[in-house]
Every structure is written in structure tokens, then in C-alpha cells.
Amino acid sequence: MHPILLNIGDFALHWYGVLIAIGAILAVFLTNRWGDQAGLPKNIFGDLGFWAILLGIAGARAWYVIQHPEGIDTIGQAINVRSGGLVSYGGLLGVLLAFGIVIIRKKLPVLKVLDILAPVIPLGHVFGRLGCFMAGCCHGHETDAPWAVIFPGVEASSVQVDLIGVPIHPTQLYAAAYLALLAGFLIWYRNRKRFDGELILIYLTAYPILRSINEVFRGDSVRGYLIEGVVTTAQAMSAVVALVALVGWVWMGKVNKDMKAKREKKAAAESA
């Protein structure tokens, strides 16, 4: 593990930024392809990708600054993402804001677009978590598990000082693994879905559960707690997202039931 890919003079190219860029490019490529297949306007996901990257990073950084204002005294320090500190749920809110901007401007079918985005959200997140592993952030607590990892104390590393050189859970890799599986399932299921909106509901149901489980193995104190030592901020946010997904499932169930009843009524009238 080393946070810096290479140094060019005084400029340091960080692994985190490189991996995020790879994930973003892959996401835009796939969504543009799927958008074309769905008959949506050309390159719409290129526009969405630009706003999603911009507002996603801004949201992720803002959420971190709100949680950890200590040591941040200037605007420059607040917006300096190279100093570390991005929160995935803040990034998700930023992406949703970007989605809203593009949808309103282009008047696109909301649920269809959300389903196209659903697989690439966890896919892009995979690269983010790999970036976290290289940077040393979002790490686990001490463990004697045979797959434990040891982070050295290198320049620009985000590993807590008391856990440098200590065997800890590679929670970044746990996350990358479950996110890859979730993305793979959604890609496989996208041509098998029963209704528009199903893919995004699956994501909003599965991710909070998987994230909450992974939080049990986290050991970085900066992630924050809603109830100290019991419920982390991410677990609390996961509960909110899962509740939104539950409401979505109930609503979509009612909509599909009503649509089915209308179709049956129409068919009965035509056959009479």
C-alpha cells in the first residue's frame, strides 16, 4: 500500500484520484451504452457524469467537514480533498442532486434513468474503495485473522497512528468485494427486471445492509458515531436509506397492482 502513484516535481499523483477517474470513465461508458439501448438522448450520461463527479466529490467532502470540523479553519482546508476525508453517503447525496439537475433540464423518465445508473453506482464505488485501501483510510480494527493486513507508516497515509504496523481488517477490500458482487448482480438482472425502478430499489435495499455489516469491522475513529461505540453515523444513514427503499417497494407494489388491474379491466372490456 502506498497513497502516491508517482511524484512529478512537487506534484504528487495519488492512487485515490486515479482509481476514482477510472471508475468514473467506466461508469459513463456503460451508462451511455445502456442509454442508447433504451432510446434515451445521445450522451445524456456524459452530462450526468460531469455533474455527478463534481457534486459527488463536493458532497462527500462537505459531509466529512460537517462531521469533523476540527482542524479546518479556512475555505482552502475545507475544499482540499487531497488532505483526506470523503464520506460515501455525502457523495451519494451529491450524485442524487446531479441526477435531479439533469433530469429536470432534460425531462427524462426518472425510474428508467435510475435503473441505468443503479449498477454503475456500486461499480464506481469499487474503485473508490480500492483507492481507500491504497490511501489507508476507512480501515478496520485490530484482528488476528489470517487475512489481516498491516499498513506501514508512509508519507500521506491516512491510517491512524495507533494502528500503523498492527494487523487490521482490510475493510476497504471487504467493501470492494461486496460492491463488485452487487454491481455484477445488477448488471445480470438489468434485462430481467419486472418494472422500471426495480434495480435502484435493489441497490438501495442491499447496500445499506452490506455497509452496516462492514461497519462492525471498521476501526477508524474519524467515521463518527450517532451513539458512541454502538451506532456509527454510516449505520444510521443506512437505516434511513433502507427506510426510503422500503417505502419505494410499497409504492411500486401499489402502482404495479393498479396497472395490472387496469390492464385486466381493459382486456375484459375488449373481449366482451
Structure commentary:
The protein has 272 residues and is mainly alpha-helical. It has one domain. It is 63% helix and 5% strand. It is built from 9 helices and 4 strands, in the order ββααααααααββα. A two-stranded antiparallel ribbon has the order 1-2. A hairpin with a 3-residue loop joins strand 3 and strand 4. Helix 1 (15-37) packs antiparallel against helix 2 (44-67), helix 6 runs antiparallel to helix 7 and helix 8 runs antiparallel to helix 9. 36% of the residues are buried. The mean pLDDT is 86.
What summary fits the major beta sheet?
2 strands, antiparallel
Number of domains: 1
- The secondary-structure element order is EEHHHHHHHHEEH
Q: Roughly how many Å is the radius of gyration?
A: 21 Å
Categorize the overall geometry: globular
Distance between the termini: 72 Å
Number of strands: 4
Approximate strand percentage = 5-15%
List keywords for this structure.
272 residues, mainly alpha, two-stranded antiparallel ribbon, 4 strands
Spell out the blueprint of helices and strands:
Layout: E1 4-8, E2 11-14, H1 15-37, H2 44-67, H3 75-79, H4 88-106, H5 110-117, H6 120-135, H7 171-189, H8 198-215, E3 225-227, E4 231-232, H9 233-271
Antiparallel strand pairs: 1-2, 3-4
